[in-house]
Amino acid sequence: MKILTVNFLTCAVKACKTSPLSFPLHFRDAELEQSDIGYNPSFLRNILPRVDWEALKVTATELGFTTVPSEKPNLDPAPSNTDLPAPETAMETSEPDVADEKVMRDLHTLLLETEVREGKMVCGNCGHEYKIKEGIANFLLPSHLGR
Amino acid sequence: MLPTPSTSHVDPNRIYEPAEDSYLLLDTLSSTNETNFLKHHFGQSGTQSRNAPTPSPIVLEVGTGSGVILAFVTANAEAIFGRPDVLALGTDVNNFACQATKQTVLQTCEGFARDMPSGLRRSPSESTGLLLATLGADLASPIRGGMIDVLIFNPPYVPSAGVPDIKGNTLDSEPAPDDAKSRAESYERDSRLLALSYEGGVDGMEVINRLLEQLPQVLNRDKGVAYILLCQQNRPEETMQRIYNWVGDWYVEVVGRSGNVAGWEKLCIIRIWKG
Ligand SMILES: [Zn+2]
């Protein structure tokens, strides 16, 4: 399970969905492993708009990653780009605000290459623990917690 | 025709194998009609500056089984969505299916990248989408609201006396001691896992209805899309009429059919989307 996944998850208990405490789920006893995904800045740039940055910072801190910047890197081009210049000019003027490469590479490693192999995720609202075994998290609830 | 992912590692005794319904979903998702729709809906707009990020679509398959559909969509992201940077998630109540799906998706994407002409050969994530996780879960229950751009569901649609219980232990894949009692127990468990993949309760609609209830919550509020397979006994016209009546601007259309028997389509695929 890639670290980025937890940014799209919440507690499976229906009553928790409306509580801000149910997101993000908190990792406990997480065993991590690295996979090798080719660094692809354009892929990463399109993923970042999907990321809830405050939640990512919580997750990163819990897993011991200290390099996540406090603000989401600004990837938007300068507003003047709205009237589209010729391709060559676009190349020259296209990198005004781009986050620096080191930050992007660290995010690539954290979001896309780091996998949680064993451990659990805990809901901050109800305290339910979701186990992760062999990289697969189990969100099936015992029958008393219902669907 | 895009190639069908290999699922030769899938154990047919406990995981639903690719069948007519799975292939209808593959054909529909890769049809000109649907790829045009998805490219238009999620494509990187040509009029924008090449520098502006366009958010990657997140695809969730519910009840992945062998993983053949999720693997197909992830590996062929560029052909289907017009962009390779698709993030894939899968859920299943069956832990064996979660494991198998992970393998199916990873090996399909790796094979896809490897088989490209050497000049074009690129790593996964450059030429294919990326699998985030397969999750043991009931439908989309752990997915945060509004996160899913495309949801795909090949449901248990066969009418049956009831729907098997999803017990927590469907995910317990510990190897049991090899004696007669545990062999009988694991046979019983495997039968139940298979039944979960096709038994749909009254009209075959019990599981489909639970998913439809979750759908408006789970899908992206501006442009979420869902593909759901139905059979004739599910009475697709009634289901579509109910979706028309949902609050908000929802659309629904039949976008794939097969098994035409005496004028009746046996299976169809409906696309539900937010306009
Ligand atoms: Zn909870």
TrEMBL record, chain A:
Signal peptide: none annotated. Keywords: Cytoplasm, Nucleus. One of its GO terms (molecular function) is protein heterodimerization activity. Residues 68-97 are annotated as: Disordered. One of its GO terms (biological process) is tRNA methylation. It is found in: Cytoplasm; Nucleus. GO terms for cellular component: cytoplasm; nucleus. It comes from the Eukaryota. Belongs to the TRM112 family. PANTHER family: MULTIFUNCTIONAL METHYLTRANSFERASE SUBUNIT TRM112-LIKE PROTEIN, UPF0315 PROTEIN-RELATED. This is Multifunctional methyltransferase subunit trm112.
From TrEMBL, chain B:
SUPFAM superfamilies: S-adenosyl-L-methionine-dependent methyltransferases. GO terms for cellular component: eRF1 methyltransferase complex. Keywords: Methyltransferase, S-adenosyl-L-methionine, Transferase. One of its GO terms (molecular function) is S-adenosylmethionine-dependent methyltransferase activity. The keyword Glycosyltransferase does not apply. The keyword Repeat does not apply. InterPro entries: DNA_methylase_N6_adenine_CS, Euk-Arch_PrmC-MTase, SAM-dependent_MTases_sf. Residues 164-186 are annotated as: Disordered. GO terms for biological process: methylation. PANTHER family: METHYLTRANSFERASE N6AMT1 (PTHR45875:SF1). Belongs to the eukaryotic/archaeal PrmC-related family. This is ERF1 methyltransferase catalytic subunit MTQ2.
